[in-house]
Specification:
This protein is α/β, with parallel strands linked by helices. It is built from 13 helices and five strands. Strands 2-3-4-1-5 form a five-stranded parallel β-sheet, sandwiched between helices. The protein starts with 7 loop residues before the first helix and ends in a 6-residue tail after the last helix. About 5% of the residues have low confidence.
Amino acid sequence: MSPLVGRGAELELIDSLLGGGRQGRGGSCLLLSGGPGVGKTALLDEAAVRGAAAGMRVLRASGVEFEAEIAFSALHQLLYPLRQDVAGLVGHDRDALRKVFDLVDVGRVGQVGDAGSAVSAATAVLALLAEVAGARPLLVIVDDLAFLDQHSATVLGFVVRRVAHVPITFLAADRRGADGLLRQVRIPERLVGPLEARAAGELLDLRSPGAAAPVRRRLLAEAAGNPLAIVELPAALTDRQRSGRDPLPARLPLTQRLESVFAAPITRLPRPTRELLLLAALDDRDSDPAPR
């Protein structure tokens, strides 16, 4: 695994949070936010590795758009490794969590307007996590908050507001400006921005060594400090293009990964907005200068 270049400050902050959790102090929370491809998930991955190495139990979940309509789907993913621990809970907590794990009649548990059921599910999850954290400090990692199903987001928001009393570290990530129920909890937020010029160059040299100097300058200029672009743009070029033996195209080609990451937010915009962006892109293409 390549080191995380240029993210020393973020890793120092994460280490501080993990240190508090390992020492059994009250829990803490942090939300990493930033644009697509900026490296939020990579930071979560590194936090998971560091937490596990320090003896913490790590639970992870990630919101995905196609599961956003399935009640408790994200919570099911997060808590599934703890399913054997449910038996030790008191009856009402045990029954509420079995509905989550079985995904049977779960809509009733968190149904809007059924406040008693929603509180039962949330308190059961908090009881389970507190029980597990009492034996071993717990690191809970949730990626792509905006894509969590509403039921899971509500329960996790309930838990996050109470982790100060138990050794649970909650670390999450989401795109900057994304909306979601967990945003209402006001988790302390750290903006993850583009890499500085020196770090961007170091990452490019690490992942694509031997690029010709003009090619290197072009790649860094177009990537604009975005780590994913720095890694993926060279991968879309041929060996001859990277070495400078063949000229670069007027528009650098994109890998499938880049297209999926950067196109996804646009596809969720209203149709008139998408059409305006398309027209702007066409105008820009028509006025594009000669190949560099």
